[in-house]
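User: quick one, fold this
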Amino acid sequence: MPDQEVEHNKDIVAIKDWLSKQPHLPHDVEDVLLRRFFTSCGFSLERAKRTIDFFFTIRSTAPELFCKRDPWSPEIRRVFEITDMLPLPYKTPENYKVFIYRLNNPELDLFNFIDAVKTFFMLADTRLTEEDDIPSGEIPIFDSANVSLKFIGKVNLSVLRKYMLYTQEAIPIRLKQVHVINAPAYISKIYALCKPFLKSEVAKLVKFHEPNSSTLYKDVPQELLPLEYGGKAGSVQQIKRYWIKRIEAKRDWFLTNDQNWSVDEAMRPTNCKDDRTDQVRDLPGSFRSLALD
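Assistant:
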């Protein structure tokens, strides 16, 4: 539909023009990212503008997640080592992008929640600023095989809240399904951490799958998954290495954009306030005081 593409391109130009006139926001933003905002906001110009503003605002309120993001730092290398964050190469028949996220090491003493979320967002930024092929939706799959109740003690509540708010209301994606596979009997206790921060429409998307079950394949064709899951997408290590190399290649971008993409609140026009920003104010500590076996 060439006519529609022309109209959409005009809207991207309009977004860029609007952005250049916002004194508090960064102006150097990739076109592909702006297209993602426009697309994920249902091609609504006003909704896209509001989401873009919130995207940069929430990043500026979370320096622990969006600053000092060096792929070669020991903290990020440790996350690469003990987790698998895998955007899969093939999409569903509905043009949905599928992801698998998992801990590959059950030793939670090695796991740092803040570093893991920071790395998760580095992967997201790599995708959102480099990939022109915008999917019709996204399907994250969380493999909880190596998650024990001790995981609760690793969670920082303030960062969890920021993560939930950012992924549900700021990042330009269209969430279609959420799957938790290899779910242990105690998964409800861990899910209880997240549920207060889940929007009702997102909570309805979450499905749990018991170990050794095939119920996931009703929604996600098995052949799209890595070899270790009975699929044909290549091995976990092959997919993981590909994405780590892409993040490493983007090192200079991370180290500069952490500052370039900050919001100058002193320059924010009075008519651009967003009440949602109050939701990301720090909460005390974490659940580390809980002794859970």
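User: anything notable?
Assistant: Residues 94 and 254 are 32 Å apart (CA to CA).
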